[in-house]
Amino acid sequence: MSDQPAVFKQIPHCIHYLFESPPILQNEPANDYYRLLAECIHHYEPEDIISWIYLKDFVDYAWEVVRMRRMRSPLLETERKRAISIVVSKIQSHLKTEPVIDAETAAASWNTDAETRRVVGQMLRRSGLTEGAVDAQMYVRSARTMEEMAQMEDFLATRRDAAAVQLESRKAMVKTERRKPLEAIDLKAERTS
């Protein structure tokens, strides 16, 4: 395959198939995954098929941990918009007056429109609230999902760390096996002298 990333030059041809379909989502750059893979190859220097499989596991789990961490901010931003809508709706329903601003419009333009931010800020202050009320609503709405994500991240990190231990252990074993023949030769030389 001519369009393979440069890292494939470091991978034995007979196992290219292990790395041809990285666990990336459509919005994730494959180059970042392959850059991580290249760094891990450089660090662990796998020498046999078992080491390469452990390396693949390590890289995949590491990638998924990074993905889980990247998902937090977009999730919170989405929940923040919902929280703005909820808080604005509640304030306006308690005021029992004509709505000053549409709650959905406020949520959609909060981050981009200074006037919307000013109007919502005034509403919050008149009700004795701060932007902290929006943040509190955001965290309440996202708490369960954030907890589930944290559990998944912990699970993936545990698997990643186990793969790292397996890699280090395998690396030490391969190094020891490589030395054995030399040690046997040294022992023979000592016996003959």
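(ticket continues) Second input and output from the same batch:
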Amino acid sequence: MQKKRARFVKLTRHTNLLRGWLASQYYAREEIVPKIACSLSGNTTRHIRSGSGILLVLAITLVLAEKASASAPLTALSAGLTKRHFLYWTVVIQEQNQSRNNSDQNSASLSGPTPLTLDDLVARDILEPLQGGMQGHSLKQVLNVFDQQSMTGYASLRDQLRAMFQNYSMFLFRYKLLQLTSDDDRASATCEIDLDATPVDDNALTLRRSVQMRLDLKHTAKGWRILAFSPSDFFAR
């Protein structure tokens, strides 16, 4: 505690020295230096903790000090502000950053990534892509959530979806996962599905469907896919 207190006092002294030098220089009348001095006039502790800000101010100050020395003699106060202070702050800030990084890494290694639940996986692999494909008008993305190899009637579904995309220009697709059960690489889900479709023909009526849909799912090498669904005519015109 005493070492931390001594370092804080030393840092405060260097900060006050910097503020005093800025106030004493001719360049304090320029626009940039009053802004720097103003930034140092607040809570000293807060600025000391923000090491990158102090380091930037010191770098600018050293440049201004070199400019001042070329045109006017430096005061005793400004002479005390040399590259030694800049190097001192650099070492202090590097130590603080290294300590903070080590602490963050230790926390991350202890906690580890949170594993996804089955609900998360089904939403990621099926429901979210299905919603995005419908609303983005991407037939390929919609078809990708179905198991093309094992699904009975896949060709018929593809034709239904192709006709729907040709006849409707915009879709609003909403879902809510109600229930989900699994058994090894198979799962069953119940969802509320709402679909609004805007027709290409301005004289045609808007399509609105709201159903409770059952999905039979299969886990494949690419993730979860739909093996069957009911009502099976949901995507029919």
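Agent notes: The first strand starts at residue 168 and ends at 183. Residues 2-111 form one domain. Closing as not reproducible unless the customer responds.
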